Amino acid sequence: MKTWPIRDCIYVAVCVAALAYAAATMAEWLTIKSENARIAAFSAGQDMLLPRHAAAELRAARGIRLLAHDRVDDAQAEFDAMGDTASQARDTLLYALANAHLKRALEIFNSAPMRQVAPLIGLAQSEYRAVLRHDPRNWDARYNFDIASALTHDPEVAAYLKGDDMARERALVPDAPGAPNGLP
User: FRET label pair with 10: which of 28, 43, 80, 184, CA 20 to 30 Å apart?
Assistant: First the structure.
């Protein structure tokens, strides 16, 4: 019986390792190609359900597409499915959700009661804060947070966020005679 010299065993081991590496790289490439095709489909307007183990980038792309069609609850479900892992895709979807909440609050600001407007503003503020915690240099989130904060300086909104349900009624009647009512 012929034994293999040690050099031949090393050659075989290196070849097997190279084949395993090539197979793993090919599987990763196919996964990335499939994810990119799905993201392109979302960008083209198609919608599809994602598997439970889908990548954060896929969930963010689907969530942004859902927000474009005013399906905020479905986009929130995609965000929740991402879990608590910090990633740029998660922050991107959170920023888009905050924008959707702020946009809705601004749309109904003058026509709806404060009990509908104030929670949307508070939610947008907390989402902008979360984005800024992960990326303090995100100037878009900082700007939009400032817009939402300016809305909370409105006495009615600020009082409602503090739990004062009678703020709107009191805002119509000033506390002191001669006190200005509204902006100068």
Answer: 28
- What is the mean predicted confidence (pLDDT) over 98-119? 85
Note if the pTM is more than 0.85.
no
CB within 8 Å of 148: residues ≥ 6 apart: 102, 105, 121, 124, 125, 128
pLDDT number for residue 119: 87
Residues contacting 179, CB < 8 A, separation 6+: none
Inside any domain, residue 3: no
- The percentage of the chain sitting over the pLDDT mark of 90, rounded to a whole number, equals 12
Whole-number Å distance between alpha carbons of 27 and 45: 27
Domain that holds residue 134: 47-172
Residue 128 lies in a domain: yes
